[in-house]
Amino acid sequence: MPIDIYWRIGTHGDQQSLRRRVSSRGEWAPVVPGSLAPGVRNGRRDGYSYVEHMADVARASESSGFVGGLLPSFPFTDDPWAAAAALARETTTYRFMIAYQPGFLHPVQAARMSASLQRATGGRVVYNIISGGGGPAQLWWGDRVDHDDRYARTSEFLDVLKGVWSGGPFDYQGRFYQVEGAGLPEPLARQPFPEIYFSGSSKAAIEAAGRHADYYLSWLEPFPALAAKFAQVREHSTAIGRAPKFAVRVDVLARETEQAAWDEIRRGWAHVDPAALRGADGDSVGWLRSQSFVSWPVRDYRELEVSPNVWGGFHLLRGGPAFGLVGSYQQVAERLDELIGIGVDAFILAGVPHLEEAYRVGEEVLPLLRGHEIRRHSSLSPISATKGSI
Amino acid sequence: MAAYPDFLVTVPTQGDGRDPLRRDRGEWRPRRPLPPFVTDLRPGAFGPFDHLAQIGRAAETAAIGGALVPFDPAGEESLVVAAGLLRQSRHLRVVAGFHPGVAAPVYAAKFSASLQRFTDNRLGWQLDVDLDPAVARSQGDFLRGADRYARAEEFLTVAKGVWHEEGYTYEGRFYQVLAGGFQAPNSGLPFPRVYLTGTSPEALALSARHADVHLFTADQDVETGVGELAAQSAREGRPVEYGLRLPVLARDDDDEAWAEARRLWDLAGGAGEGLPDPDPRTRLWGGFDRIAGSGPFGLVGSYETVAAGLRGYLDRGVTSFVLDARPHIEETYRLGERLLPLFAKEIEHAH
Ligand SMILES: Cc1cc2nc3c(=O)[nH]c(=O)nc-3n(C[C@H](O)[C@H](O)[C@H](O)COP(=O)(O)O)c2cc1C
């Protein structure tokens, strides 16, 4: 089975590097000379918006070997459906992995938008189904549904979406959704159904993932923890006769030498607000897990290296999850190979700045992967015995 | 005209790459393949111009003023590249390099009128007059010496003649036109901004009569050239602006920039040799031909160091900088985000 490697397209601007947590791309910071998308030309704004830069990142990663890009969705970001619609026509092979929370969008409307996007792109839509992290952000969207019920709703949502996908009439009576005589109209109904990357680390998430995931998608965690989580998902899925694949979302800071990579972290670390060294809002089990792998508080950035090249401080240098890989091109490729060894079938990689790092990782790291070779001989994997049956 | 810096970047004509010897972007050399077990959707879906388009878009997004596509008989054809870059931008001015032997002046003008119309008049010409004789012959051009300037003079005269006048007639040594001239909607357009080069008396005389911008390189005596050309253009009664083609390598600080120069130098086969020192007086470093395939002399240092070097040229009357840095997309972003803002005051004053 081939390994699909995605990139990430930031949907809330970008920094020039991890050295300073200052955004200069997009409208999330004041537009001044040196800003881009919008940029300043001859003292005036150039009429562009952040979507121009997203298009640059999409093309950069498309041409350096990534199959597509994850478009995240948060209260402060651009919207991934809108971004996918805008970028669809500016790329050729690139798949758009749209992150969204069921619940904010009616499943029939989601089906209609997805089918139209499939028609616009020749079937390049992929879903990242997320169910929210609770807390103020959840209320910001107007969503009061609690943690486990959100996964129940996600399950219903996907049932309805799949129900209407290939035409109707489709009836459904659920706790969250009811439809009668629903179904996509004829030309829309003949599109391939998007692959589902499903996220969530809680028990409720893992149960729902068992039913719906094509790929169970996790943030990077220390490898044994990740392998254990995959085993749980696999167990749940097998029980109901399904066999999802596994994907992991990994930040990457790779340089020619390991020293050069840590130098970048060191420069960024100098600007970290010590007060930011902890803090988790809401009910996300995944986030609490990620914080539990490190004994806080930490004083030095190397204390966050939980195993060789696996570093848990990325959230301190840019918005987003904590864990990623830091090292030489060769080391990062080896760690990715190890992840393939514990059962990973797809990656969503990311680096800051997204445009420049897409070229770097595509040109320097991906060609070094040895993947399957390692998986076949690996004794590392606690699940290698069951892997063959998937 | 107010002194202001206008920044252009240089578009590569023989591929692009992260390292000096790699030209795998833009498909000049083969890419390192992905391992067979990794999904690769690219084969068949991309061509070399996709990369060139991304370079143009990087310049557009980073709010760079323009891009120069040099004449390179051994590389991509510049007018075709320019047409693509112009089509995919809204603000970027694109200067296409070519030499007068490539087409009749009426034809070059006609082609350019279409491009001007398609792009809201953002095309420029860099006319390369003095080619290496062997290269010229390989392009079917056997004209030598001062005649090359005489022909360039006629070329520009005729091109501007048909551009601006209906019923235009010309009898010259090299070109003849009878009752030519463009009609609407190909008439009444601004003529492409003309960039010329060279330090010989013939070159400066041609520029005095025809250049909008005269471009120097850093190994030339810019001060003397500006002085002579200023005197001549005053006699012709038309203004000429001055520009400089300059490779740059700029980073957060001087140490980092020199470390990168060293890294690239080693990769380019210089590992056994010492890194040449920059000229202590001008701060120009002469290793760029090796690490970037551009002209040899350029500036290495922090953004502030490079800006100070450019200010030295601004003080001598240079107002256009055609910068060259590779890999082109990453470095274009860098120049737009880090170097150009250091000239924000000057730019605002000029407008
Ligand atoms: C790979 C990945 C991507 C995510 N992207 C988003 C996102 O774009 N927007 C969002 O609100 N939450 C996102 N989340 C967070 C989820 O909404 C949810 O809070 C998280 O998976 C925790 O769920 P749990 O409590 O079941 O572990 C993402 C989570 C993962 C693992």
From TrEMBL, chain A:
The keyword Flavoprotein applies. GO terms for molecular function: alkanesulfonate monooxygenase activity. It comes from the Bacteria. Signal peptide: none annotated. This is LLM class flavin-dependent oxidoreductase. SUPFAM superfamilies: Bacterial luciferase-like. Keywords: Flavoprotein, FMN, Monooxygenase, Oxidoreductase. GO terms for biological process: alkanesulfonate catabolic process. Residues 40-345 form the Luciferase-like domain.
UniProtKB/TrEMBL annotation, chain B:
Keywords: Flavoprotein, FMN, Monooxygenase, Oxidoreductase. The keyword Flavoprotein applies. One of its GO terms (molecular function) is alkanesulfonate monooxygenase activity. The keyword Flavoprotein applies. InterPro entries: Luciferase-like_dom, Luciferase-like_sf, SsuD_RutA_monooxygenase. Residues 45-319 form the Luciferase-like domain. One of its GO terms (biological process) is alkanesulfonate catabolic process. This is LLM class flavin-dependent oxidoreductase.
